[in-house]
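Folding Task

Wanted — backbone structure
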Amino acid sequence: MAKKICSHCVTEPYLNQCILEEGKMNKCSFCKNEGRTFDLEKITRMVKSTLKRHFERTASEPTDRENLIQNLLKEEWERKGEKLQNIIEDQFRIRYEAAQEIADDLIESENHLNDYDSGENFDDEPHYIEKEITDGQWSSEWDQFTNILKTESRFFNQKLESFLASIFENLNSIITSNSQSVLTKIGPNKEIKSLYRARVFQSRDKLLHALEKPEIHLGPPPSEYASDGRMNARGISVFYGATDKETAIAEVRPPTNSTVAVAKFNLVRTLQLLDLRNLEKTTERISIFSPQYQEKMEKAKFLSKLSSMLTRPIMPDDEVFEYLPTQAIADYLSSQTNIDIDGIIFPSVQGEGTNIVLFKKSSKVNSYKLPTGTETEVRDYEDHEYGGWSNYSIIDWVPKTINTKKRITPKSKIKGLENGALEIDMESIEIHDIGKVKYPTISHRVNRKRIEDPYIETGSQRLRP
């Protein structure tokens, strides 16, 4: 009579659920309890199939190189991997006695993982390791995606849109190895409550003009002045910021003797962003017995690589073409997904800081309210009886209040009704004069040698054989 095994003796979630849903009531051959059971032979077949797809046997003897190292270091060689029974018992979570029987059955079988003709049989104490997960077809499809963008079609391309949809479907269900979401919320009462933004000035007059209305001139540029960026195409205005002012300054790459204005922008409502820092840690919690295991693990592998591909440093000469994939992704995420995404968090290539881009729909900065008739003066110098010094100040000359009668403030003037996501912190504005810039480098010497070549004759063009 065929041996039976119950759900209590197989605790691996996928196998356990299969037994509970499809098993028949019988007495378990191992724990002797009545319950839902499978034939042990059926579990053995499932184990065998999973081993074949996702594991590989390690060498039973050291290679010549390993022998050499072993002799040099006077160390005993250890076979890689785990014993078959240990894998069945510990990783597949099958009761010890049953795991032992399954292992013995597979070891004695002539055709266990590969076809009979391959000669691949279990040895007396086989050891196995999991096969390395690759990203399957995802990388080649990504290469096709970038090539089409650069050389064929950038607009109205259904194939590109379908590829992006397959990458970013179910974003809100993707998790990381430490159980975090790849979607992060920022805003009031969140870890990230404000952003820093910097702008380079090479003209004193332009700087003073910008300080008259810093919420406009230090915020995202008007569309006609929006140049190509990592996450935006020319003409699409977005808000590039950083979580600290040092990173904000580094990102604008100011030249020597220029001036940088930096301001903090407070978030006035909650925004949801795709966090590329977490995308790098993407994993998939799925049973190795699931038919979808390989497919889902390959996508998780690709997503973990995608983060670095989207944030890698790009040489200035290559930006026009190399920014196309990230621009396409940002455009897709801002408008085409089934969940609302306001921007992207990504690591800075200029250091250890963090950058944030807010898409156009979420990049509006609320205007700074001043009484009608106010005149603003900006000074960058302060006189004193003993001399003067550089000192930036913004003076708002407001009209004298004559009518003390209480006036009703129009709704358009009430704070918070502009629907902007950001407000500038006027007290945070700083001006940085850029001195000499030092670049850390790694040097490599160039060696030149002369070697006589017997196949070269003076004045001849003879080639080597």
Notes: The chain has two domains: 4-130, 139-362. Residues 286 and 293 are 6 Å apart (CA to CA).
